[in-house]
Amino acid sequence: MTDENSNNKSNITRRHMLAGMASIPAIAMMGGPLLASDFPTAEVNTTGLAVTDDKVTVGILHSVTGTMAISETGSVQAEKLAIEQINASGGVLGRQIEYIQEDGASDWPTFAEKAKKLLVQDKVASVMGCWTSASRKAVLPVFEQYNGMLYYPTFYEGLEQSPNVIYTGQEATQQIIAGIDWVTETKGAKKFFLLGSDYIWPRTSNKIARKHIEKLGHQVVGEEYYPLGHTQFNSVINKIKLKKPDVIYAIVVGGSNVAFYKQLKAAGIDMTKEKPVLLTISVTEDEILGIGGENINGAYACMKYFQSLDNPNNLEFVKAFKERWGDEIVIGDVTQAAYLGPWLWKMAVEKAGSFDVDKVRIASPGIEFDKAPEGYVKIHDNHHLWSKTRVGLAKTDGQYEMVYETAELVEPDPFPEGYQ
Amino acid sequence: MIGDYTIVEFSSILAMQGFAGLILFSVFVLMALGLAIIFGQMGVINMAHGEFMILGAYVTYFCSLFFESFLPSLYGVYFFVAMILAFFVSGTLGVIVEWALIRHLYKRPLDTLLATWGLSLILQQFYRSVFGAREVGVSLPEWLLGSVALTDIIEVPINGLFVMALTTAITLGVAFIMYKSIWGKKVRAVVQNRTMAGAVGINTKMVDRLTFGLGCGIAGVAGSAFTMIGSTGPTAGQLYIVDTFLVVVFGGAASLLGTIASAFTISQAQSTMEFFMSGSMAKVLTLLTVVGILMLRPQGLFTLKVRK
Amino acid sequence: MKFARLFDKSEWVGFAIIAAVLLIVFPAVIDIFRLNLVGKYLTYAFVAIGLVLCWGMGGILSLGQGIFFGLGGYCMAMFLKLEASTPENTSIQSTPGIPDFMDWNQLTELPWWWQPFNSLPFTLIAIIVVPSILAFIIGQAMFQRRVGGVYFAIITQAIAAILTILIVGQQGYTGGINGITDLRTLLGWDIRTDSAKYVLYFVNVLLLLIVIMLAQFVRISKFGRLLIAMREQEDRVRFSGYSVADFKVFIFCLAAAFSGIGGAMFTLQVGFMSPSFVGIVPSIEMVIFAAVGGRLSIFGAVIGALVVNFAKTTFSETFPELWLFAMGGMFIAVVMAFPNGLAGLYSSYIAPFFKKIGSKPKPATPMENVANSTPKAPAE
After folding, report:
1. If interface means Cβ-Cβ distance under 8 Å, which residues of chain C face chain A?
2. Do both A218 and A240 map to the same domain?
3. Per the confidence metrics, is the pTM higher than 0.90?
């Protein structure tokens, strides 16, 4: 009651404040933390989210059980780290972030169910989560219906642009085009063999790759798909040997990855030699843990982030990550993208001066984050990130050595021409 | 196809493809052998078979870590130690499981299926809680890596050869135990007529227990060998279940020869089809063919007449 | 009246209690979010009831009920997807008017077998008929040749695997691993709103009650008794001149049709369908619903589906890591300690207790020789 009253009374002042707020974040980013008392709860939260005078609740929604736990564990760790760091630096609009973690259990309807719980019951201000496309597709209608905000970390196939999702990973063209340009220019590649696990991301990515390869006037000599979880790749390796491609373009995922690289190596395809070059967009440092550095040594990966990136942001990030989660840990591309989620959300909230999802959405495009481990990133109008494409060379110690990066940030293009 | 390639290339590829089929065959036999013994002996389908294999894989992983830090000079042979350990660890767990679970359910084969499925869930979560959710990379001694080049095109992977040799050895070992040893005689006697076997003084319960242990132990060795070609993680065992069951069922119960013949048929069919079409379709067609044949010949390829 | 004889007195009480709880108590006391979850759980009850008939009574264990659940669900999803893909909604596509995933896969027109799903009556028939036909084919092939027991279980499992690979692989036609998502309206009626969720919940419950009665009708009929006879002594039934295979095919088809209805209701209430319901794991989970509830009890199946899923949700909210231990333990406990599940516990402990204190109710689900009934696999 009193809240409502004061709301009505302070209407004018609030408008006044909102106008003035635009300048606050700039100051805040340079200076000290914001104070919650400058941002009364009633004003920064008009839609009944879980925001109190000193706390704000967000959701973390990943699989910690089931087959996807292998991949999603890193994302959970990164998000928790980011939240802890934000809290240590004063929180969001002076409020400490609390999180509610839910388990998607590698099961898509469970993701939808938990997303709904987070939004409807817990009223979280935003959700960091999902990994596979299937889980994102499952929760998407929920986020759109209940107007939530999802920060989605994985590189993915594109063909999507939701007002309720910020995609902190790359969409397919950001990962593919620059890598193929690089391999044709520096390695003189003309013949490509495309290979992938049989589902939407590899298939869409390979379509984009094929289109680009053919546009460059080169040739695709084979395209193969294997069911998820497939463990026998000797036949396709024979086909590769027969076709003698310059580049093996591999988008194999999950447990199949391990089998593929071990068998490739055993079959005498030495990736450290001049040809064939193996270029992958699906193997991060996380996957190499399972594959074993000696089995993938010499392959190239096209990502936006490698743990070995040599810039001050990243050195600090890697140090903090290892302090928090142990020395043995490795950090892959998606883990880094997951780390961006809470930060980008914080910045959007502070730019908007409000936790309201609609305001955060309006504030999001154009947000620049120069403390990102991958370097400077910026949110595009289409809710994806501008980011650099980098090519790394896999070494025996399980790390990548960056051999190329685009000079400029690559513009995200979730609906590349001919695919919409 | 032959249009694009020279005769030499084509024949080399045929040879290599044949070899790929043989590797797949060995892998199938290794996967299915343990299950076939258990299924043949007691009609129990062990849904946790994949998890017993992964246990062997984890044993191998820890063994490699141990040798790396404490016995680096012997690293080249750690794999053999690991396989033996894997056999005993998985085998022991098998004996315990038989004692705690399976022996109560012999009269209800369908229920063992459910109980062992429950067991597999528990084991998976156990691996995840204890060893972590991420996959582990098992490093191999240098001599197991790489390949032997026979001609310019034909290259034979050494670990493939190793798996084939191992499969042969284990199959021969099992055949010897089953058909030449006293214990094998007892096992066969129990399979053919449990009551009579008991009446002539064979401890049928002990036979059951050890058979189950042997089957699980072989699963452990298979898991250990598969670290060379596949992944090791809490849920990796699930990748194998459908193939394994089909091989066993297709081969027919209680027949070692059946399992081998069925593994051979399925592997050759799959690797040939994989060469001419996409991997997914090859898999679907292989499974469909197997299911189709099973519908025509439900008892599997080979059967053994037994008195129930 | 014949209808009144469908259940005996105590069963009517049980039926009334279930109906009252589902129709009145739940909607009254839990919010729409949880009610929608209950609705989702209840769609599994359709499968579980089918399993009671074919596994509990007939002794046929199918590890592939997800196939039929999925087929029913996909039929519904295809209809809804076509409705959601009007040319206006999909104007950014290169071929407007077809589902988005087809467009991504460069299909330029609707495949012929999608066409009939523009019609709701066809879809409704397909939801029941498509699973039944597949079940008929599988059943004919297997039961006529006297395949049973473990063999049947493994083969159904393999078929589930095949179907999953097919659906995932043919993504241009099926939506692939993501499934068919973003379903919005049914004949213009928005199924995503809270009020629609209420309506769908009640439709779901009513359908479930009808299915319960159908199943009960089968159970008390002569056919139901024959089923049990087949489970216990298949050969004697055969020697008495009955066609065992035909009975088995029929009950398997019936179970498939029930599952199909469940799948369709699932799609409507959850808003999407994906291959993850077709595969091996969900199929086995559905067996555990029936087993926990009591494989011989139709009411038990409903309660089992509710209890297991409720436990799953609660557990995974509080101790996500322990959930699989609990689930695995449940499988083992149900098999080892109380093979007749909750219904068995009720009839061996609670019902006698009621009798003792002098009140009337007999076991809610009188079960043939609970103590020594160990469903056997038909000899192969």
Report:
1. 33, 37, 40, 92-94, 100-101, 103-106, 165, 168-169, 171, 176-179, 181-183, 192, 270-272, 274, 276-277, 313, 316-317, 320-321, 323-324
2. yes
3. no
Mean pLDDT to the nearest integer, B169-197: 87
How far apart are alpha carbons A174 and A382 in whole angstroms?
A: 14
- Asked, for residue B303, whether it belongs to a domain, the answer is no
SS3 label, residue C130: helix
- Mean pLDDT of all residues in chain C? 84
Domain count, chain A: 2
> Which chains have 3 or more CB–CB distances shorter than 8 Å to chain A?
B, C
Is there a single domain that holds both residue A12 and residue A134? Answer: yes
Query: Is the model's pLDDT at C204 over the cut of 80?
Result: yes
Q: Residue B214: its pLDDT value, please?
A: 92
Site of tokens 């209800």: B108
| CA C210 and chain centroid, separation | 14
Residues B227 and B60: beta-carbon distance below 8 Å: yes
Same domain for A104 and A227, yes or no, is no
Asked if C178's CB is within 8 angstroms of A134's CB, the reply is yes
Range of the domain at B95: 27-240
- Give the side-chain half-sphere CA count within 13 A for A367: 31
pLDDT at C366 over 50: no
| Confidence band, pLDDT 50/70/90 cuts, at residue A362 | very high
Q: What pLDDT score does C7 carry?
A: 76
Using only the alpha carbons of chain C, give its radius of gyration: 21
Residue B82 forms part of a structural domain: yes
Residue B78 confidence (pLDDT) above 50? yes
A224 with B13: Cβ contact below 8 A? no
Instruction: Give the domain range for residue A166.
Output: 2-170+311-386
Q: What is the spatial distance between Cα C62 and Cα C154, in angstroms, rounded to a whole number?
A: 8
Task: Give a yes or no: residue A235 inside a domain.
Answer: yes
In a domain, B140, yes or no: yes
Mean pLDDT of C87-99: 80
